[in-house]
């Protein structure tokens, strides 16, 4: 791995709030095939955050059909971070391919 990518991954990993690192341990087994431990931890962290935010939004949908701005901005931020990481990892030994799909539900 080139030095720039290693520094980039380490910097992104260091952005994870220290009080949230313990939450990702249960998700790390999904990322065992990733050679870089910081990258595996970063993916596990985003996995945790997405699960939390989707769960929060599903709860809000079933209670009052109103989403909070803070959590909505958090979701947008996580999605943007994942997209930026995918761009940085392009043409490296770590390739992250994002598949964008839209599903519509009719009630």
Q: Structurally, how many domains make up the residues?
A: 1
Instruction: Please compute the radius of gyration using only Cα atoms.
Output: 16 Å
Task: Decide which structural class fits the backbone.
Answer: mainly alpha
Beta-strand share of residues: under 5%
Largest sheet: none
Low-confidence stretches: none
Distance between the termini: 49 Å
Give an account of the 3D structure.
It is a single chain. The chain is built from three helices and no strands. It has one domain. Helix 1 packs across helix 2 (37-63) and helix 2 (37-63) packs antiparallel against helix 3 (69-89). It starts with a helix and ends in an 18-residue tail after the last helix. Helices cover 56% and strands 0% of the residues. The chain is globular and about 50 Å long.
Write the layout of secondary structure elements.
Blueprint: H1 3-14, H2 37-63, H3 69-89
Helix pairs in contact: 1-2, 2-3
Keyword list:
0% strand, single chain, 107 residues, mainly alpha, globular
Entry summary:
56% of the residues lie in helices and 0% in strands. It has 107 residues and is mainly α.
